Amino acid sequence: MSFCQMSKIIVVTQPDFDLATRYLSAWAEEIIKLAKTHGNTVIDLKGSRANRAELESIIKKRHPRFIVLNGHGSNDEIAGQDNESLVKKGMNEAIVTNTIVYAISCSSAKLLGVAAIEKGALCYLGYEDDFIFLNDHSKLNKPLQDPLAQLFLEPSNKVSMALIKGHTTGKAYRKSKEMLRQTIRRILTSEASYEEKACLRYLLWNYQHFTCIGSTNAML
Amino acid sequence: MTISQPYTVSEAELIELIVARIRTLPENSGISIGGDGEFTKEQMIGHVKKVDKIGKKMIEVELNYLQSLKNLTNEFLSDE
Predict the structure, then answer these.
(1) Which residues of B touch A (CB under 8 A)?
(2) Domain residue ranges of chain A, discontinuous segments joined by +
(3) ipTM value
(4) Domain range A9-210, its CATH number among 1.10.10.10, 3.40.50.1110, 3.40.50.1970, 3.40.50.1460
């Protein structure tokens, strides 16, 4: 397999066992669609397939360049279906060596991200504290049509979309932060709805805790 | 009235403030806080009043926002 082919493989975990993971997984479909449109091979580990054995096996066999991890997390790990630990500091962080990782989960950039970079990951994008988002209860069965969740998850998706479109990790990080900044700015300065204004405190929180560790020049 | 001394809020006042802020969230909304789960407004208020792990996180988020207010203009409204 040539390096070029290897660089086009993207792994996306999509656990779906609770509301938060169902939302993250639904919004990941947008990334998967774009990735396929751009000629990438996407391996999506949905539901029960979002487990450690499957992830480790896929990485070992297919050598993805980009791994999108949706799920719950903590300072030193990120989880999959039913909160099974997928990547954990001190256990298996070396599996992401030579990859770009985007962890849409809580806090994992704090310790796991640093450890992954020390073990050879190219770049780890994620959050140093809780990733928070609001949802509209009337849209729970249609996450992609939830206007409150969109405020949070659209800027989050921007990272993956920018990478897929050929930008560097640094540029993808800046584009995502800029989109979040513009969202915050719009709410501060325009006729934002009451619901949008209520999101401000959480948008600011995510903005402040989103980070990029490792190379800012890595590309898919 | 002039306040000449630094004002310190008690824990009870702080909880009252945070509860009041959470009450401003839309009725028909929920909040996902990573691995801690999904909460309604009333559930969040309960956690803040108990000052448990979730309540402390809510307090931290709200205080972070209030303390950031003075910088919001420069950070988000500048044309840079």
Answers:
(1) 21, 24-26, 28-38, 57, 61-62, 64-65, 68, 72, 75-77
(2) 9-210
(3) 0.90
(4) 3.40.50.1460
